[in-house]
Amino acid sequence: MKTDVSPYLRKYFIMGSQNCECNPSKILEEAAQAGITAFQFREKGEGSLTGSAKLELGKELREICRRYQIPFIINDDIELAEALDVDGIHVGQDDQPVEMLRQAYPNKIIGLSISNSSEAADSPIHLVDYVGAGPIFSTTTKEDAKKAVGLEWIQTLRAQFPKLPIVGIGGINIENAASVLEAGADGVSVISAIAKVENIADSVRRL
Fold first, then answer.
1. In the predicted model, what is the mean pLDDT of the chain?
2. Is residue 174 part of a domain?
3. Please, how many CA atoms are within 13 Å of residue 172, restricted to the half-sphere of its CB?
4. Is residue 96 assigned to a domain?
């Protein structure tokens, strides 16, 4: 496992082309300039790219992250993880098993989404570098999003795992980001709060 990834979680941007109304590379470049601390390439859902188009976009976004020295994390795509030489892989409860990922990639960052106590109990927390806790607030960005679990879920996780790096996910914006940090998260992950705003620099600064 890697060293403490908490600092990377502070302003964690998640995006795929399906979240963008203009060029994804332009959005990521602006976000990187503005100070995001990690990026997750999540090309999933209606309107998302596949095959060579997905790979080409991944290469462009990967290069931007390299230039700004921002960790490039991919959402549940092992083939692209190899092709893009990613820094990390993020999975949900129904994706690739963490045990398999850790065995295959002992030195990559591995993140896991956890939404409730039973998932926490059944997950190999000791094998992951961080967890995504949520959805904290309701979100319309992810079609398969679960019911919002509230700030209490972060407080519960933090009490149970005092040293575990935690990033809040789901419905987070510049108005509620501070409450997620106050609840005990190391950072916030956002999609729309960067991908769908006019002034990206201002939004990143205020997160």
1. 95
2. yes
3. 33
4. yes
- 2 exposure class (CB count in 10 Å sphere: 0-12, 13-18, 19+): middle
Q: How many CB atoms lie within 10 A of CB 140?
A: 8
Token pair in block for residue 34: 């503005």
Q: Is residue 1 part of a domain?
A: no
Query: By C-alpha distance, which of 56, 66, 58, 64 is closest to 26?
Result: 64
Any idea which of 19-28, 84-93, 109-118, 137-146 has the lowest mean pLDDT? 137-146
Range of the domain at 140: 6-206
Q: For the full predicted model, state whether its pTM sits above 0.90.
A: yes
Total domains present in the chain: 1
pLDDT at 73 over 70: yes
Q: What residues have CB less than 8 Å from 60, skipping those under 6 apart?
A: 24, 25
- Asked if 144 and 155 touch (Cβ cutoff 8 Å), the reply is no
Find the CATH number of the domain harbouring 125: 3.20.20.70
Residue 142's pLDDT band (boundaries 50, 70, 90)? Answer: low
Which residues carry out catalysis?
A: 42, 113, 142
Q: Tell me the residue type at 130.
A: Y
Cα-trace Rg, the chain: 16
Asked if residue 191 belongs to a domain, the reply is yes
| Other Cβ atoms within 10 Å of 190 Cβ, number | 30
CA distance 167 to 133: 6
Cα–Cα distance measured from residue 39 to residue 37, given in angstroms and rounded to the nearest whole number: 7
